[in-house]
Design goal:
The chain is α+β, with helices and mostly antiparallel strands and about 80 residues long. About 35% of the residues lie in helices and about 20% in strands. The mean pLDDT is about 80.
């Protein structure tokens, strides 16, 4: 297991829009990202893709609320990793 594992959450997403249609999508809020370093020293950022899980919660993958969630995760990971 890695020496350091960081779990971060992104709170800057309008949760109400997604929850109006797919209430069970709340299971994934706040959005979370797992950052860890593997044995080779590579740093990874892992998270559930909102577009991938949205259909199982009654939302289309391209629903505006889902795309906002994806954009928030992208911004968050970009800022956290400096990419």
């Amino acid at each position: 297991m890695a020496d350091r594992i960081h779990i971060a959450s992104a709170h800057d997403v309008d949760r109400s829009a997604a929850l109006q249609t797919g209430q069970t999508m709340a299971l994934y809020l706040p959005l979370r990202v797992l950052f860890f370093e593997d044995a080779q020293g590579q740093t990874w950022a892992l998270y559930d893709d909102p577009a991938g899980i949205a259909p199982s919660h009654g939302l289309a993958a391209d629903d505006p609320a889902v795309t906002r969630m994806q954009a928030a995760l992208t911004r968050f990971v970009t800022i956290a990793t400096g990419d």
